[in-house]
Amino acid sequence: MTALAHVPTSSGQPAAPPAARRGRYRLLPYLLLLPGAAWLLIFFALPLLQLAAASLYDPSGSLSTGYALTWAVGNYPDALQAYWPQFVRSFAYSAIALVLALLMGYPLAYAIAQKAGRWKNLLLVCVVAPMFTSFLVRTLAWKTILSDNGALVGLLRDVHLLGPDGRLLATPIAVVLGLTYNFLPFLVLPLYASLERLDYRLLEAASDLYASPLRAFRKVTLPLSMPGLIAGTLLFFIPATGDYINAELLGTPNEYMIGNLIDSAFLVRLDYPQGAALSFLLMAAILAVVFVYLRKAGTEEVL
Amino acid sequence: MRTMGHEAPAGDLRLANLTKRFGIFTAVDDLSLTIPQGSFFALLGASGCGKTTTLRMIAGLEEPTSGQVLLGDRDIARLRPYKRPVNTVFQSYALFPHLDINENVAFGLRRRGIRKVADQVDRMLALVQLEGYGRRRPAQLSGGQQQRVALARALINHPQVLLLDEPLGALDLKLRRQMQIELKRIQTEVGITFVHVTHDQEEAMTMADTVAVMNAGKIEQLGAPADIYEFPATAFVANFLGQSNLLAGEAGGTSGDHVLVSAHGGRFSVPAARARLDRGPVFLGVRPEKLHLVGTAAEVPAGHQHVGGVVTDASYVGVSTQYLVKTAWGSELSAFSANSGVGGQLPVGAPVVAHWDPRHAFLLRREPGEDDRTTPLLDEPPVSVLS
Ligand SMILES: Nc1ncnc2c1ncn2[C@@H]1O[C@H](COP(=O)(O)OP(=O)(O)OP(=O)(O)O)[C@@H](O)[C@H]1O
Ligand SMILES: [Mg+2]
């Protein structure tokens, strides 16, 4: 402090703030972090620990006889052995849904961000509007849309894309369509945010420098929308992989994804160790996929 | 050029009745001009007069409302921009933020399928004095450095026509002069047609073969720099390119090969060759450096014409002294006098006589009712020794 007091401050710069005030500013970020951190600790980290413990319970226990923590690591290979097809299916369905969503979502986000003009806000509301109703209700609505005596199936049968008694409901197609629809906004919104910031003058420059519209897209638009694209695909892919509502309502047990099994392990079969082990396996698998993906696609802005 | 696959017949750039309207606003109004192949054409004009819009129509980034853009005898007005042998240095630079400087500069070459670009890029970066900056991103460069990258990115393609929209605006004086010399050298060596938009009159005059002064979407005057400066066609040009003292008067016909003018109670004459008209309301114009100050009417050289006044301001700017002289009718004329060591400084308040050689004066059309037009000194940025 005394040393500070002797530093001449006539150089036009404001004098250094007193140490006490500076100290408070240094603490401020942590104070701001506190509510969120506490929330995460109580409602995420602790339950996660609890779940990790449950995945290592003795599998022969039950809710009525009680569980013992026996570090039963074997729960994991057992669960994987029993349910690997559902794992593969979860990733396959959400990957196909992701591709469909990208094919629809990128042009949509681009059009809203760059071409919509004064309709921009209205169109954004339209993208988000389905979220105003519950996930369950939306999926049930798809059940009606895809039902055997609905207009869509009728039309597809008329044009012979479906056989006379072909159906959509209770098929993998229905589940994938449901996933695509339900998670589309999570893909579109971050993409929109990226594309909105894209300076059209860069496209003019590209075009001035001999880039056809397609090349300009590949070399300028796409790289510049990468942050939104990565965020959007993650926000789409992660919940879609763990989803169980779509398979439950639009599919049959033949379309069950890993989420359905976790659901039934906890709520129907009451096999807590297996449910917990499946949850962790799913988490690990998604983390692995995301890690590889970011390694491949990540620019320094993302990582 | 050969790799571009759309070799155009060599030729002049011609704009024919080119018009661009944004809604009811006419940004470019029936523009017609010819820019010979390989020439350096400068476009001058106040902010918002339509210079960028004109360039954008040549580049293909803006569709003309009507009119033609001809290169040789091919109308390119409706060709997509990436099919035109034209490159632009954008006023806003428009560098690609996700590419490093090397890739920014190489962008045009790569799009034309040229694989080995490193040598050309290095040479180009050396030319704009940015060696060693190749791995940086545009955001890591200063404004002037970014501008030079924009220049390199366009120049490297050796287009048939290069459009430069204030390409040196962000550079300091020394660097700007160096770049001007480089640009001029490239232009003469490679024979590219340059269309150069600038706010720097000196730049336009020293570099260009032809200067066009634009005002409100129209070309007011087009010609060699010296011709325009010495004999402007309109009052706008007279004060946009350099400055002028314009005295409101009435032309009263010719006598011999002179046009007679009466202004503010005095009688003057201008050689007919330097008069745009010989009857009706006119401006009698004299450039400040052609206006000389002496103490008494007796000292005025034979054949010169003069008006009396009082010095109201004298600014010493090193190479010259700039005076404001208030006339009897209240207008302030400006006069530059070279500091050649001959004659001393005139003090403020001194009565003086301002005289000029009528062969240096010019006569322009004046709208009836318009008064004298004399520009304040601060219009022309002097090379000040003080600041
Ligand atoms: N897309 C547009 N929509 C409406 N008006 C426009 C558009 N682009 C340009 N203008 C108008 O056209 C006029 C000419 O613009 P332009 O950009 O050509 O000016 P400029 O001569 O290049 O000016 P500066 O020297 O400031 O760059 C301006 O008044 C501008 O407001
Ligand atoms: Mg402009």
Automatic annotation (TrEMBL), chain A:
GO terms for cellular component: plasma membrane. The chain crosses the membrane at residues 30-53, 91-110, 122-141, 169-193, 220-240, 276-294. PROSITE patterns: ABC_TM1. It is found in: Cell membrane. It is a multi-pass membrane protein. Keywords: Cell membrane, Membrane, Transmembrane, Transmembrane helix, Transport. InterPro entries: MetI-like (IPR000515), MetI-like_sf (IPR035906). Residues 87-293 form the ABC transmembrane type-1 domain. Its main location: membrane. Pfam families: BPD_transp_1. GO terms for biological process: transmembrane transport. Belongs to the binding-protein-dependent transport system permease family. CysTW subfamily. This is ABC transporter permease. It comes from Micromonospora sicca.
